[in-house]
Amino acid sequence: MNTNTIVAAFCIAVTAIIWMGTTTNDTDWTGNRNVCVDDCYDQWKADNGGSVAEIEREKQIALAAATPEALGKTYYGQCIACHGAGGEGGIGPQLSGQSSAEIVAKLTAYKAGETRGAESAVMWPTAQMMSDTDISNIGAFISSL
Ligand code: HEC
121 CB under 6 A from ligand 1? Predict the structure, then answer.
């Protein structure tokens, strides 16, 4: 087989795949639910508040405008099980009532693998997953509780 034959075979294969993907005997398009253009996409945009690109742009703007406290609140979702929704404590100690600086210092110590209490090992992996920004956002949120 020379190069031209290979290229021709490749083109035929691609054409066949495209043809199979766009051809259907089903006039209601129920067989190909991934195709959502024209009216279908207009409806989707109406239902979802904009095009995919517009929604993504809105998200980026909201994220950029979010305060450290709001970002910390979002991150805190993974701490609730042990520290309580209001930071009142449970499996882990109470966090509410502490200043941002205290929280940041404690999380930074855990991140460095330091032992603070009998159960510090529980906090090491959690703190290691946190960036410095995550830690300061959490500090801002907890000091607001
Ligand atoms: C699996 C349960 C668990 C989860 C999840 C957890 N923690 Fe903890 N946390 C603990 C325990 C237990 C301690 C006490 C550790 C010790 O003995 O040093 C602790 C201690 C702390 C302390 C120090 C409190 C003090 O006053 O000494 C802070 C701050 C803290 N956690 C923040 C967080 C944050 C922020 C998250 C979420 C990103 C989180 N924790 C997730 C169990 C948990």
Answer: no
In a shared domain, residues 76 and 55: no
**Residue range 111-145, pLDDT digits in tens:** 999 999 999 999 999 999 999 999 999 999 999 99
- Based on the fold, state whether residues 56 and 74 are members of the same structural domain: no
Would 81 be classed as within a structural domain? yes
pTM, rounded to two decimals: 0.69
Q: Which domain holds residue 121?
A: 68-142
Contacts of 132 (CB under 8 A, 6+ apart): none
Q: Count CB atoms within 10 A of the CB of residue 142.
A: 25
68 touches ligand 1 (CB under 6 Å): no
Neighbouring C-beta atoms of residue 89, cutoff 10 Å: 13
